[in-house]
Every structure is written in C-alpha cells, then in structure tokens.
Specification:
heterodimer, A: five-stranded mixed β-sheet, 5 helices, B: alpha+beta, seven-stranded mixed β-sheet, globular
C-alpha cells in the first residue's frame, strides 16, 4: 500500500512525513520523525506513556492515526523545554524526585502540563483524576502529585 | 569501617545525574534504539496451555518476501534435563526451554518460533504461516489442580518422594521443636490463605536490538536488571562466547525483579546471526502479560501459638508457591522471611515449589516474602485479637533485636525493627480517629538484602571533574546516591560528579540490580575507588610540595598539609591537580572489583487505613504510613520513593491485581485495562517514616531498601478491612465482587 504524505506542525516546527495509513501517531513520532521521547507501554490507551497534545487536547498517540495529524498542531515532550531552559514542571519533577525509572515521565509531564493549562489551581483530587490515565509503577504517584501541585502554585505566583 | 557523619551531600535531596535526560525525553530506553539495516523480530507463541510439539514447518514463512530468518528450538543450545547448569539462581535446563519451547509447549504464550523480517507486519504475518502440529495435553493452572493425584505431569523427570510430580522442590527452615513449642502455647491460631499471581507491571515492555557480525562479535542493546546477566545467558543459550558479546544497558523502564532473566535476547541474537542483519524485538503488552513474570500465586497455612501474656512460643508455616511452567518459585523468600521479624523459640517454615501450566515466574520485589508475610501477619492480627492485645504491642513483645537468632540462620546485629514498631505506635496516624466502615491495620516485613559482585571505576577528568562508572543498571535513582557519596568523599559539589552505567566491555563484572543490593554494593566499590583516587591525589600533592604523602590530607576538595609542621603550602584543588596530571605521573583514576559482604536484613512496619464502600464492595485506602529501618538514607527522596512505590504495588496486589484465566487455560486479562494496577486516583499520599539505624558493616551505613516496602502491605490492608467490616478475608485480591460477597454473607 502506498504511503501517505502528512504535513503537520510538531512542537511549533513545520513537519512532513510519510506513513502507512494504519500507522499510529506514536509509530510516526518514534519512527520517521525520530522523536522517541513518547513511549509505548500498552498500545491500548491505558498507560498514558505516549501522551501528546493535538491542538492542545491531551491524547494517547497510540490511539491516534498518524494521518490524523494533517494540518494540526502536535506537541510532544521534546518541545516542552525552551532551549536549555526546562519547563517549570520538568524542573519541579527533578527537584522533587517525581520520577524513578523515567519511562512514564514524558507522558506524565505532557498530561500535567495539559492540566495546568486548563486549570492553574487544581485540587489534589483533580490532579489525581486527571493523571489517572497515566500509569506509574515506581513512585506510588505521591511525589508526582506533589510536584504538579507545587508547580501550579509557583506558576500562579509568577503570573501575579 | 567507620560511618561517615556530618555530611554535606549524603542525606541531601540532590538532583539525579540522569534526571534532565529523563524529563526531556532524551534518555534512551531499550525500544528507542535503531541501527542502519535493522530488521524486526516477532515470536510465534503457543495457543495451548500444554501440548506436545510433534513438528514445526517453517517453509511457508521462510518463503514470504521480506523474511530474512526463522529460528526454532533447534537454534537454541539444548541443556539436557538430567544435569543442572546453574547461572545465578537460573537453571539453564529451564531457561533454554523457556525462551523457546523444546519438547512441549507448557503455557499459552510459550515461544514456538521466531521470525525476522523487513517490517514488523511481515514478521507477524510470517509467524501465522508457520505450521505447528500440536498434540494437545490436559493441563493444570492452579496449585490444587497441579497437586491432584491424577494431575497432568509437566515434566516426567521432576520427582517428589520418588515419583513424577508437579512438586519440584521443598525447602524448610527450622529452629527448636514445634511440637514442644505448641504444647507450651495457651492460644493457638491456625489459618489458611491464598494469593493470586500478580505481574511486576513495569511500564516498559521487554525490548532489545542485537547485531551479530560474521565473526560472531555481538552487540546487544537491551533493557534489563543486569547487562552481565544478559551477556551470560545469551552466551549460554546461543553458544556465542561471552567475550564476543558486548551487552549495553539501555535505560530501564521498571523491572521490580521481572527483568532479571532474558526472554528475547537469545532469539534476536540467533535471528541476527542467521540473517546477517541487526534485529530489533519489542514485546507487546499482551506478550509481557502472557509470557513474562509474574510472581507466584500461592496457598499457605500458618499456625502460631502464644502464651496468655503474648509471648509467642511456636510457629509453623506451610507455603505452596506456583513456579509456572518450570521449577523455581521463590519459596526461599516465603520460608525464610515470614517469621524473621520475631524472636520465636520454635519455628518450622516449609515451602513447596509447584509447577503448572502458567508462564515461568520471575522475581518480584522481595520474591516470596510478601506471600509469606501476608499469612503470618494476618494470623498475628487474629492472635492479638484473641489475646486482647494491641497488634503493635504483640509485635513489640516478640520483636527480633540485636542478638536474636533467626530461624533462617543469622544472628542479628544491631537492627532497627523495634524502632519501626515504636515509630508506628507513636505516630499521629496510629492515634487518629476512624469513621464508620473504616478500619486500621498494621503489619511488618523482613527482607534478607544482599551484597555480591560489584565493580566501579572513578576517573578524574582533565578539567578536574569526576566520572564514575558502575556496572548496575539504575532502576530507581542509584546514580543519585552514588553521586552524593563520591562528592562527599572528594569534598566537591555533587554536580561535578557524572555517573554512568558501564557496558560489559567497559566495566568489571557486576551482578544484577536486584535483591535490594545495588546502592549497598556499588557504594562500597565507589568508596574504595574514590579512596584510591584520593590517595593518588595526596601523593601528587606531596610530590609537588616535596613532602611525605602521609603529611598530606584531603579535605574540602583539595590537598592540604596535615599540620603546619608538615610545611606551609597553599591547598591544591582537584582541578589544579588534574591540570598537572600529565607532568606528574599521568591520568588519575582507580577501579575496584569486589564481592561485597555485610548486607544486613531490612525491616519495616506499615499502618493502613481503609474505608469500605459497603454498597459497591470497593475498598479504598485512605491513609497509609510506611516505616522502615533504611540504614542510612543516602538520598532521602529516592528512599521515600522506594517505600511509596512498593506500597502502591502492594495496594494493587491486595485489592485488584490478579491473573484471570478462562476455561481454555489462557489469561483473560492480558492488558492494563483489565489487569487493574493502581492509578493515581486510587491512592492517597503515602507517608513514610525513615528510621536510620546505620549498617555497621557499610562505609555509609547503607542497607537495601527496595524490597521491604512491598512485604507488609497486603496484610496491613487485610487487617484494616477486617477492622472496618468485622469480617476477615483469607484470599487476595479483596476485589469488589469478593468484598460484596462477604458483606452480603
């Protein structure tokens, strides 16, 4: 079957790639685009390790077809830091040891960022329910939830 | 060895050396690596739980365009069944049959053949074209079925009491005389328990990329808990010399014991050898669930006898653990650890290793110990109730302490178990009020911990910074601990220390990351290497100053004269000495390889609060505190993280996780949707209290901390559910349908 040509924007940069019609967005990111920061843990949308945003909407890239990116804005973990300046969430995850093995970390950060864009002042319960689609087997989530809430507080303070 | 005190970095919450790579997506995990000319491998797996393989015809698969190689058991080294060949705790007789079915398929998912092709889709299609003639055999999954007199026997050569059997082994530890002990007892509680198999649940599926050159020089990139284990097992199973294999450790996306054996590497190596192309293999989540891990399901009977004043006089445990398709369930953990927190004069603890038609079990965090502790700690709760004693008071009365001889052998040195009980008793958590349908449970746990082989190399860079290389994959932050220790010893900022995980060609042999041994062992060899480096630095300064090396001390990152009598010299910093290195004797660095000893057991005590939704049968953990003697918290955040992570795994095991089999003997929930691991909204914050009783046999006082946190969880929650409902559960998981059944009587 002939490959499909897709024109899209990834992390603010114009991008083009060829993909099979059946390829997932995760296949395209990790394959032709070489963006391996998004991980595959389940391929069924249950672990969230491949989380990206599509036009600011949080999605599992394993559940989205690569052709669906045509004309849309994709954001991945590779676009989260600005140059050598980490995003406040990345910095807080580091400082508060909110990662252990690191395989879920990309997805956790993308999902947390999507939450804070929607809701800059989430309660612990809101953080927990928002991140319920992102499995972490190492941390028990404690330090992740704390890191997200502390980042939100810092960002609110900075915004004032 | 003296314990270092007044530290600047040890005990600090520094930023881990590999952290930025991991928060930016740059870190390379096993499936992230590619090579030019790479092709893809896929595995054909048995659909049957038990079947004789009469023939395999791969001709149609081989003829498919794009297919470059096909391998079957014929391509894997055969280890005849009559002689054991051990590699660590793994017997190659079973490993060669586990990576590829030989005479029989023994579980659904058992590899039958593997194909390498130019795309994953072609490889998968080629697998479908392989024709296998199976003679389907009767099977048994559960322990009770495997032990029936007419049960299908998995291995004719496995014998118990002289007859072919599915009991592959028995292990016991003994102290005193339990008959005499139980005669002295005034209150005796005896109960039976069952647990289901649960998976380690690492988020990263197994993956590897392997290239084999025409002269057999082999490079393996894979994620595992030990690159040296990967090298050795791949060599054994493929016949390639160990010296021809370079195993490069990728970042590891969780393991918890489940990545201490190989599954794909021997297959990929043979596919690469046959095809002449690099081969990449990545498991799907379903393959992970069907054909790797998990830990055992179990049935246990525990009997404990005490005097009216609460003195425990006798204990008897019988633990049957599922091994899966090949012998090797973790009976040692169940038998050795279960009664280890207590000073009991008469103990008999027996374990039975039972094979059945499930995937071969793999280590899972304190293998076997959580299963044993579940039974023992629940019986202790009933004993406390019968004696009208507070459950912590009962444990305190019988707690093991310095000088206690454990049934499994050791006489304990100074340990911090009593301190964990006292911290639990004195905590706000233990005193907090409870509401309706809420309950509180406590439980304790013990793990052996381990030392073993470890290697390190410490090199000073030309600009006066430090590169430390060790041989243990970093599974949860060990690089951060090593950076703290090395910086502390050198008296420099921890950010000047870079910590790398060496591959099998660049660092000396190092045993697995597992058993709660890595920071214990690696910090000993890093300490000794750093001390050698400091010795060299002192010698260099002495040469420059033209004084005796003994007259030079190393302090705050620089050489100083020990006293004014030694001479008046300006300090020479690490950077200055590094700069002068070429003219003062050459590069500065040192390595140490050692079989480390002195690991001491770890103890923990947990408090769990639950609330039961009596309408829906849902048990929610509403508060949790894990208390542990951690020896010395070299990096407190990652020690806390180990405790919190272990607790969350235990909560899953207690409440929801289990393998569910259908009538065809196949796992019915092989994905994260139906195999229900705790998600963020299932858990509360997990509080930790770190008791620090330094290990006197370690330079920094380190004790392993990774395994203990899983051990008490299931019993703490079970005891809490009992208090909430007034009804007791004797099997796991306490999932909503089972809870409702008990509530409704």
């Amino acid at each position: 079957m002939a490959k499909v040509h897709v024109t899209t924007s990834i992390n603010g940069e114009p991008m083009e790639y060829l993909c099979e019609p059946s390829d997932t967005m995760l296949d395209a990111l990790r394959g032709p685009l070489g963006l391996t920061g998004s991980k595959e843990g389940c391929a069924s949308g249950d672990c969230g390790a491949c989380s990206i945003t599509l036009d600011d909407r949080l999605v599992c890239s394993c559940l989205m077809l690569a052709v669906e990116a045509e004309g849309h804005e994709i954001r991945t973990i590779e676009g989260m830091a600005h140059g050598d300046k980490l995003h406040p969430l990345q910095q807080k995850f580091l400082e508060s040891a909110a990662l252990q093995c690191g395989i879920c970390t990309s997805g956790m950060l993308i999902a947390s960022d999507a939450l804070l864009r929607k809701n800059p002042n989430p309660s612990e319960e809101q953080v927990r329910f928002w991140l319920a689609g992102n499995l972490c087997r190492c941390t028990g989530y404690d330090k992740i939830v704390r890191a997200v809430m502390e980042t939100a507080a810092d960002m609110r303070e900075t915004a004032q | 060895m003296n314990v270092v005190t007044n530290n600047k970095w040890i005990g600090q919450r520094t930023i881990r050396p590999d952290g930025v790579d991991k928060v930016t997506g740059r870190a390379a995990f096993a499936a992230d690596t590619t090579m030019p000319g790479m092709i893809w491998g896929k595995v054909l797996r048995s659909p049957h739980p038990h079947a004789r393989i009469k023939s395999i015809d791969t001709s149609k698969a081989e003829a498919l365009p794009g297919v470059k190689a096909v391998v079957t058991a014929k391509d894997i080294v055969d280890f005849p069944v009559d002689k054991s060949v051990m590699l660590g705790i793994q017997d190659m007789r079973w490993m060669c049959r586990n990576v590829m079915a030989r005479e029989k398929a023994l579980f659904p998912g058992h590899p039958i053949a593997a194909v390498a092709a130019t795309s994953e889709a072609i490889a998968a299609h080629a697998c479908e074209l392989i024709e296998v003639d199976y003679e389907v055999l009767p099977w048994s999954i559960e322990i009770d079925d495997a032990l029936k007199p007419d049960a299908p026997i998995l291995h004719d050569f496995v014998k118990f009491e002289g007859k072919p059997s599915n009991i592959a082994g028995r292990l016991e530890v003994k102290k005193g005389d339990i008959v005499k002990g139980f005669e002295e007892a005034e209150v005796v509680i005896e109960r039976s328990f069952a647990t289901r198999p649960v998976h380690q649940g690492y988020i990263e599926p197994h993956a590897c990329l392997i290239s084999v050159a025409a002269d057999n020089k082999t490079t393996i990139w894979s994620s595992s808990q030990g690159q040296f284990m990967v090298r050795a097992m791949t060599a054994h199973l493929t016949g390639i010399n160990q010296s021809d294999i370079r195993a490069i450790p990728a970042e590891i996306g969780g393991g918890f014991g489940g990545k201490t054996i190989v599954y794909l590497e021997p297959l990929a190596a043979m596919l690469a050898k046959k095809s002449g192309r690099p081969v990449k293999m990545v498991m799907t989540r379903e393959e992970v669930m069907r054909a790797t891990g998990p830990t055992s399901g179990s049935k246990s009977t525990v009997k404990i006898g005490a005097k009216r004043d609460g003195t425990i006089v006798a204990a008897h445990g019988i633990f049957y653990l599922q091994a899966g398709a090949f012998p090797g369930s973790p009976i040692r953990g169940a038998v050795g650890c279960s009664f280890a927190p207590y000073d009991i004069p008469h103990v008999l603890s027996e374990g039975f290793d039972v094979v059945s038609n499930r995937s071969k079990v793999a280590a899972y965090r304190a293998p076997g110990a959580p299963i044993g502790a579940y039974a023992v700690e629940c019986v202790l709760d009933e004993l406390a109730e019968a004696l009208k004693m507070d459950p912590l008071a009962l444990r305190l009365k019988n707690a093991a302490k310095e000088g206690t001889k454990a049934a499994h052998g050791p006489v304990y040195p100074r340990i911090g178990y009593v301190e964990t009980l006292e911290a639990a008793r004195d905590s706000d958590h233990y005193k907090a009020p409870l509401g309706k349908f809420q309950g509180r449970g406590v439980a304790s746990g013990y793990w052996f911990n381990a030392g073993g082989e470890s290697s390190a190399q410490v090199n000073i860079t030309e600009d006066g910074n430090v590169v430390v290389t060790t041989g243990h994959p970093d599974i949860g932050g060990s690089r951060a601990g090593i950076a703290n220790i090395c910086a502390e010893l050198l008296g420099i900022d921890y950010r000047r220390v870079s910590v790398l995980i060496g591959d099998t060609a660049t660092i000396g042999f190092s045993n697995l990351t597992g058993g709660s041994r890595v920071l214990f062992a690696s910090s000993i060899v890093v300490t000794q290497s750093t001390e050698k480096v400091i010795h060299t630095l002192r010698e260099r300064a002495a040469k420059i100053w033209d004084i005796d090396p003994e007259a030079v001390k190393w302090e705050n990152g620089a050489a100083h004269p020990v006293s004014p009598n030694a001479g008046q010299f300006e300090p020479l910093t690490l950077a200055e000495l590094a700069e002068k290195a070429p003219s003062m004797g050459g590069p500065i660095g040192a390595g140490v390889q050692l079989n480390t000893v002195g690991a001491e057991g770890g103890f923990g005590t947990h408090i769990a609060d639950v609330e039961v939704d009596v309408e829906l049968g849902i048990v929610r953990v509403i508060r949790y505190t894990a208390i542990q003697d951690v020896g010395r918290a070299v990096h407190p955040s990652y020690v806390e993280g180990q405790l919190q992570g272990g607790v969350s795994q235990g909560i899953g095991w207690a409440l929801n996780e289990e393998y569910i089999y259908n009538k065809q003997g196949k796992v019915d929930n092989p994905g994260f949707l139906d195999y229900r691991m705790p998600v963020c909204s299932d858990l509360p914050m997990i509080d930790t209290i770190m008791v620090e009783v330094p290990n006197p046999k370690h330079p920094q006082g380190v004790k392993g901390v990774g395994e203990v946190p899983l051990i008490p969880v299931m019993s703490a929650i079970s005891n809490a559910v009992h208090q909430a409902l007034g009804k007791r559960f004797y099997s796991l998981p306490m999932s909503p349908p089972k809870v409702l059944e008990v509530i409704e009587g």
